[in-house]
Hints:
The protein has helices spanning 39-50, 90-112, and strands spanning 53-57, 61-63, 66-68, 72-77, 80-88. The protein is an alpha+beta fold. The longest helix is centred in the C-terminal third of the chain and has 23 residues, at 90-112.
Amino acid sequence: TSAVPEYAGMQRLVPSNPYMTAAYPRMDEPMAPTEQMPASEVECRKDLKRLGVVYTDLAPIREGQCGIDYPVKISAIGRIGMKPAATLTCDMAATFAGWARNELVPSARWRYFSGVRT
């Protein structure tokens, strides 16, 4: 009589090499540790406050390969309201606020003899 293997059915398809495994998509851990905001982002938010920017922090934005790790939603720069509010990186928000304060407002006063309104 011939020896018959003890396994049957699908078990024959299991590779004998334990290192051969199917590739499964990597999933994020459900309880990933919360990241601390980098010091540069903390400093940038201090700059926004100094510039009089009214903002709120938002959750990270991810769209494919693009995204913003620490976005802010700007609703006003000083007395200039932004409608609709703009979602930007903190650096871009600080750059825009500096431009509005140093270029836009003085130019509007010089050209139109008035300030900038919402």
